[in-house]
Amino acid sequence: MSVDQLIQKIKEKQNPSVAGLDPQISYVPAYMRERAYREYGKTLKGAAEAVWEFNKGLIDALYDVVPAVKPQSAFYELYGLPGEEVLHRTIRYAKEKGLYVILDVKRNDIGSTAQAYSAAYLGKVDIDGEQVEACPVDSVTVNPYLGTDGILPFVQDCKTYGKSMFTLVKTSNPSSGELQDLLLGDARIYEKVAELVCKWGAECMGESGYSSVGAVVGATYPEQAKTLRKLMPKAYFLVPGYGAQGGNAQDVKNSFNDDGLGAIVNSSRGIMCAYKKGDWKEEAFAEAARAEAIRMKEELNSIL
Amino acid sequence: MSVDQLIQKIKEKQNPSVAGLDPQISYVPAYMRERAYREYGKTLKGAAEAVWEFNKGLIDALYDVVPAVKPQSAFYELYGLPGEEVLHRTIRYAKEKGLYVILDVKRNDIGSTAQAYSAAYLGKVDIDGEQVEACPVDSVTVNPYLGTDGILPFVQDCKTYGKSMFTLVKTSNPSSGELQDLLLGDARIYEKVAELVCKWGAECMGESGYSSVGAVVGATYPEQAKTLRKLMPKAYFLVPGYGAQGGNAQDVKNSFNDDGLGAIVNSSRGIMCAYKKGDWKEEAFAEAARAEAIRMKEELNSIL
């Protein structure tokens, strides 16, 4: 689904936020982990099934509040093949519930290899003439370090299959500046990447006026976000770093355009671990997640 | 296994090369594909099983010639869950045959997420106190765009578990210069990344005098390799781009130190598709791969 469909879901839910599904095992309520360990042992399978039960509970509680979910591939690869299987199950389930699925994989490689990654997640796999889907999602994150020929296969599949993508521009982590902020003459690296995002995105414009080639811009760097918003007026921003990483609603405001669109703000730990704050019982993890997602929605709407 | 163990295997085989296992389905001999399709159909499973049979034949023919193999994750993710399963099977089989396994995943993320990736591939996964291996390999490739805190978890696991890693510095693809060659004052981005590689690597020095934190430096940019060799004297270089991508033996010479060590040169298509050149029959794909691997070994030794 292209950026237009993401925007439609954001408007329907009146909520420019995405729930990150980054299920470290310590996030999963203890009773749920113990149940899975009783059945499968403290194994990759046991951990993965606990994650699945947690994810399913979260999706059931969130699908009418948030427009999108963002599974973080690392926390499924972490549990080996059983983890990968649960990632696929989670994606399918989220799509069945009408959610827009952004798979956070940050893939990057030379052209022919980037094409394989793109076919796996956005496009189709050609098996001697049969067109097959491997792990179909609506959107992926990519890393720009290899330049245009590592990005174009994704752009092409966004066009062909009506998908979207988010290129890392300015990430939310403390050391993001080490490379991204380096000064070239009078511009920073992240501004140079922003220029490329505009160039790549020009071929993928939606009816909404936004491009299906978006950008990752961390909530933890609001001043840089302001600059980047101007440099990439038509790129949708995926904004990590809100909540647990320290970014607040005022900080993310700079990532939005005056039309109240242009950004979707991610919260992972804040929503998944909401039950660990306040007086929630573990069994109410989903209810707590829903309450936090609604609180976040209201907070975001209050600043827009 | 640390860089010392890689060097030991290189010395034993007298061969500083690594066979890339990037099995696009079109690389697999037609009779082998057809056999898999008869059993499993033109499905992800059919493609993955054809890839497995191909990989097994290649490993059987190469394990006493090359010290290492480098599976490219994209070409397994391409075939969904059956592809992932074949990746794991390939890794296990290569390790049983005594090969050093470098998994080409180019992972990158913020600190806590990088830790999950590193645990999955280099370290161990903690499942409520049980230490489990998810997808254990000897080495991975990583992307530096997020800076130090996305890299340190891998460095830590290299130290703890005696593994190695290769950070993208100057990649082999045509557009690698778009970001990597940008000029900051009097240095290029790739030189800046080289400085970081040295810093990260200082804590991971082996008895060989080389660090377990290595660098990816493309064979297609020999002049840049010469500069980078001086800037990172103790980093092992993983050198893609030899053969099919255009780099020749003279081009890769610059990636080696005067001790004849310091680099391992990758060939993927050149070895895997050797049977498509000359008078080989498809059934002799493994023999052709072996002949090409031996030719490459001799060529590399002739320039060192």
TrEMBL record, chains A, B:
Residues 16-284 form the Orotidine 5'-phosphate decarboxylase domain. The active site is at 106 (proton donor). InterPro entries: Aldolase_TIM (IPR013785), OMPdecase_AS (IPR018089), OMPdecase_type-2 (IPR011995), OMPdeCOase_dom (IPR001754), RibuloseP-bd_barrel (IPR011060). Its EC number is 4.1.1.23. Pathway: Pyrimidine metabolism; UMP biosynthesis via de novo pathway; UMP from orotate: step 2/2. One of its GO terms (biological process) is 'de novo' UMP biosynthetic process. SUPFAM superfamilies: Ribulose-phoshate binding barrel. PROSITE patterns: OMPDECASE (PS00156). It catalyses: orotidine 5'-phosphate + H(+) = UMP + CO2. Keywords: Decarboxylase, Lyase, Pyrimidine biosynthesis. CDD domains: OMP_decarboxylase_like (cd04725). GO terms for molecular function: orotidine-5'-phosphate decarboxylase activity. Belongs to the OMP decarboxylase family. Type 2 subfamily. This is Orotidine 5'-phosphate decarboxylase. It comes from Candidatus Avimonoglobus intestinipullorum. The gene is pyrF.
